[in-house]
Amino acid sequence: MVPEGYMWLFEGGPQSPGEIRALVMELLGPEGSAAFWQKWREDYVTREDTALLHRAGSMRFEFPCITTCLRATARKALIAG
User: Rounded to whole angstroms, how far apart are CA atoms 8 and 14?
Assistant: First the structure.
């Protein structure tokens, strides 16, 4: 899930995904930031959330993605062979 300022209720603070990533890095450092974003990806939208949306009648889900995540995944796949 792409983090955006409105989701975090930032008023006058960082708004773009890059600005938010920079703030988290500044506050938590490299290791803390990596752990935070891992947890974010695991917990932000859960299986229970998608089941609720399905029961409510939603027929599809559209998730924006961050190209840096895709590049990192592609890089790992290339390295792994």
Answer: 9
